[in-house]
Amino acid sequence: MNWTWFHKLGSPKWFYQWASNWGGRCVYVGLALLLVGVVWGLGFAPQDYQQGNSFRIIYIHVPVAVLAQSCYLAMGVAGFVSLVWQMKLAPVFIKSVAPVGAIMALIALVSGAIWGKPTWGTWWVWDARLTSVLVLFLLYMGVMAIQNALDDQVFADKAVAVVSLVGVINLPIIKYSVEWWNTLHQPATFKLTEKPSMPMEMWLPLLFSAIGLYLFAAGVSMWRMQTEVLMRERKANWVKKEVLEHGI
Amino acid sequence: MHPVRKKRIVTISVILVVLATAIGLVMYALSQNINLFYSPTQVEAGEAPQGVTLRAGGMVVENSVERASDSLNVAFLVTDYKHSLRIEYKGILPDLFREGQGIVAQGKLDERGVLIASEVLAKHDEEYMPPEVSAALEQSKAQ
After folding, report:
1. Is residue A15 part of a domain?
2. How many domains does chain A have?
């Protein structure tokens, strides 16, 4: 099998130029879709027959919660690549994505609590879903703390890769917590194999805000990675040339 | 593939599988503690201890809600469609509380096997629909 594309992907210079083209596009298209989805969902989608307007939190809560898990999964894959192939970009990816995922997990926890108070009657219960998402948030915090606490960059990258990889075990626990145990949190409305338990005029805005948020997060991560690449490659000739030609 | 990388993949995979198994076994062993609430069947089988604060939950049985006219006392049955459990509560119920709705109550079991609740939480299901759709469903059910 030909692995050149894989090795090309790991070249900081090639990535930097590629991200210069795609980072901005992802952010702006993502923001536009997100705006459409959120305005549509919060302003125009029909109410729920039981919860009334408070169900609209779904247009924020579900995209951020899914993205928080996707970010961690991607970090786990990067951790594996980092440990096995020792590709330069993999630890850059982990370091750049961790804060994005952490913010998503935090918004998911807070928006869920705001919805939980009127719907369940409580801000927080220690049920399996809520607790495992809190663990996800703490894992993000751990990754960021390790990255910042260790001065030796090579060692920090290795430690962070291990934490990212091991933390992936938490993801199936989050996903299946509502099926394996009795929880207060309801099971998933959207399943890959079945029709969603929600009519189209309710889930279509959700699709917009979810895709928008994914693109936005991808674009922001590319920007963050570009900055990190410049920091790490600051002694390389191509960085000098790049900065002289285009500025930062 | 380079033999060194192959070796790394094998090592990492083995460590991951072992860790995942260990965590899986711990979760399995603790599953009773991870469950947020007891079902009426578990209470019936005597799995839930008496006089200790615990949570029990199920669907509120149709026509089982008794409200006192002069106080906030309320009593109702919850069921998991196998057994049912009587819950007594004094206080304001959450907005979503209604017959046929899932709830989780925290409290203590007394000697009669009734849960004296100090907190009642409504459990929401994963179904969402606009009010018109729900009204239409009700109507077709009535016919």
Report:
1. no
2. 1
Say if A108 falls within a structural domain.
yes
User: How far is it, in rounded angstroms, from Cα A176 to Cα A234?
Assistant: 44
Residue-wise pLDDT for B33-71, tens only, equals 788 889 999 988 888 888 889 999 999 998 889 998 888
For residue range B61-119, list pLDDT tens digits in order. Answer: 988 899 988 888 999 999 988 999 999 999 888 878 888 888 999 999 988 889 999 99
Q: Is B135 on the interface with A (CB under 8 A)?
A: yes
The neighbour count for residue B111, using CB atoms within 10 Å, is: 7
Is B34 in CB contact (< 8 Å) with chain A? yes
Nearest to B124 among A126, A169, A186 (CB): A186
Of B19, B35, B104, the CB nearest to A181: B35
Please state, in angstroms and rounded to a whole number, the distance separating the CA atoms of residues B93 and A70: 37
Distance in angstroms between the alpha carbons of the first and the last residue of chain A:
38
Is A141 within the bounds of a domain?
yes
From chain A, pick out residues whose CB is under 8 angstroms from the CB of B125: 186-187
pTM: 0.88
**Cα angle A41, A26, A92; round to 5:** 120
Q: Is residue A49 part of a domain?
A: no
Which residues of chain A are modeled with pLDDT < 70?
1-2, 248
